[in-house]
Amino acid sequence: MRVVDFLIIGGGVAGLRAAVGLAEVGKVLVVSKDGLEESNTAYAQGGIAVAMGGDEDVALHLSDTISAGDGLVNAKAAAVLVEQGPMRVEELLRWGTGFDRYSAGSEQNGELMRTREGAHSLPRILHANGDATGKEIAVSLLRTVRGLERVELMEWTTAVDLLVCRQGNAERVVGATLLDAAGELHEVRARAVLLASGGAGQVYSDTTNPAVATGDGIAMAYRSGAELMDMEFYQFHPTAFALEGAPRFLMSEALRGEGAWLINSRGERFMERYHPGLELAPRDVVARAIAHEELAGPVYLDMREVGKKMDLKARFPGISGFLADYGLELARDPIPVRPAAHYLMGGVRTDEHGRTSLAGLYAAGEAACTGVHGANRLASNSLLEGLVFGALAAEAMISEQGSIEQGAADSDSSGLVDVADVEEWIAQLQRLMWRDAGLLRDAAGLQRAQAGLQALRQTATGQGAGKSGLTRRALEARNLLTVAEVIVQAALGREESRGAHSRLDFPRRAEVAKHSLLRRGQLRFSGQI
Ligand code: FAD
Ligand code: SIN
Q1: Quick one: pLDDT at residue 466?
Q2: Is 283 a catalytic site residue?
Q3: CA distances from 131 to 76, 317, 388, 444, 470 (A)
Q4: Which helix or strand (DSSP H or E) is residue 493 part of?
Q5: Angle, to 10 degrees, between the axis of helix 443-460 and the axis of helix 472-493?
């Protein structure tokens, strides 16, 4: 057994920012199941939204966040996000994050560049290397963390389950079991555990998320009895690359921020029929508009006009490089796009300090749900969320008192997936989730999804006669199934359309906004969190 003060599961923006805070008081172990360069953070393109222009600016960022969230935003958490955001971004600047600036001597003389994205009332999004903001933030956070003696980084190490100590009615998370690259299991005990394990885009066949986004932390927490919140709210980014056989590479919303149009198969610009904000309407609105237009043929992102005024290869080098491999150019070609699963608004319920419903367990970033995004996240608020709530979770974890529990503790290792072909089993799950629990939902589809998931659960155990073994992929399969099940359960229970959750059979928004709360199979809705 290994003992550390703090265990952090995940090395994206939330986990790394928390590590910086925790290292001030104790020994921190950060585990990442892949190399540290693999996380949603590292793929973030458009930028980081932050209001650095004083009180009025902050108030506007707050009201944009609340409006985008369609009645369900936890205003207290959103206020924390926008008010503490500037301080956290200043910190990044001190740690050497190279956000893009106007050149010295120009009219704006070295000022930070700011762009606009959907549902923002003004340009407030900082970016780096054009469209590689997440990578720049990840690199500078990693550089900072690597300079801290008390932080140990363990890559290629998968957290399997949380360890829970039960004494009478009291439950406390006291550590986790880890699977290392050599296939060895280890037990780590800690004063407090932080889930910073990111989202779950891999639950869908069409996603912008990298392979690591399998919802592990959420599933682990749920198995241990933690409460999940708003799991039905999956954000579908409107504009993922849509060429058959190609990955759903993100075509950043910043393209539309710089003036890109959306056109349909007849070459018509169509967003005026859906929202006065046109291409910069909230994401859920744009995604549904594209899905509707797609019924008549492919939809394209058109930057040909913008390309006459701006060097698009310089502004969007990553996207331009990707498109070049397909013989496409932003300034010359309409780019085929369609929605893809992008960001989970729901997650492990926490307060603004990352405290979950289980003692000793904290969560921050995309794995957590403070309610800050409500039913629909405002573009580029997620990197900021990781910084702000990662730092706050660290502050709360520091105040954990007492000795580190090294006595008996157990974990729920049920539901291990053992099938002959784990990749095909996962692909089936992803396809059925996309088809029946995706952008547009109804009871019949969701019930089909539920039945399909039940069938997958029945085939999951024992069919492979030990073939899957205790591998990272088999563990991910188990977690994907859990996350898929809770998404479908919550989506069936929410009989309204709100934000990213669109029910064709309940097209209206309920009068009273309620959060869904799910614990040990029991779903309830509450206006209070
Ligand atoms: P992540 O960055 O996903 O990190 C999760 C970490 O947990 C990884 O290190 C992973 O290896 C580890 N992990 C997971 N499971 C386990 C396990 N079982 N054991 C050990 N380690 C584990 N947001 C913005 O604000 N602006 C943008 O411009 C933007 N663009 C985006 C573009 C793309 C293509 C994508 C996919 C997302 C984008 N987002 C953007 C969203 C944003 O990047 C993420 O929501 C955010 O980075 C999540 O940070 P995180 O720290 O919570 O998780
Ligand atoms: C993008 O660049 O469009 C992604 C921004 C985000 O997810 O917030």
Answers
A1: 66
A2: yes
A3: 31, 7, 22, 40, 38
A4: helix 472-493
A5: 150
Please list the ranges in the chain whose pLDDT falls under 70. 462-468
Q: What is the pLDDT of residue 467?
A: 62
Q: Which is the catalytic residue, given 88, 283, 338, 472?
A: 283
C-beta neighbour count of 75 within 10 angstroms: 14
For position 464, what pLDDT does the model report?
61
pTM of the model: 0.96
Residues of the chain with CATH 1.20.58.100: 412-526
C-beta separation of 350 from 368 below 8 A: yes
Residue given tokens 């990044």 in the structure block: 92
List, by residue range, all CATH 3.90.700.10 domains of the chain. 242-340
Distance, CA 17 to ligand 2 centroid (Å)?
20
pLDDT of amino acid 105: 82
Record: fold of 242-340: Flavocytochrome C3; Chain A, domain 1 (3.90.700)
Where do runs of H (alpha helix) occur along 69-130? 75-94
DSSP state of 504: T
CA atoms of 395 and 397, how far apart (whole Å)? 6
Say how many Å lie between the CA of residue 242 and the centre of ligand 1. 22
Neighbours of 482 (CB within 10 A): 22
Residue 256 contacts residue 129 (beta carbons within 8 Å):
no
| Contacts with 404 (C-beta within 8 Å, 6 or more apart), sequence order | 3, 5, 174, 189, 190, 191
Closest Cα partner for 394 from 168, 232, 200, 196?
A: 196
How many A from CA of 197 to the centre of ligand 1?
Answer: 7
CATH top class, domain 412-526: mainly alpha
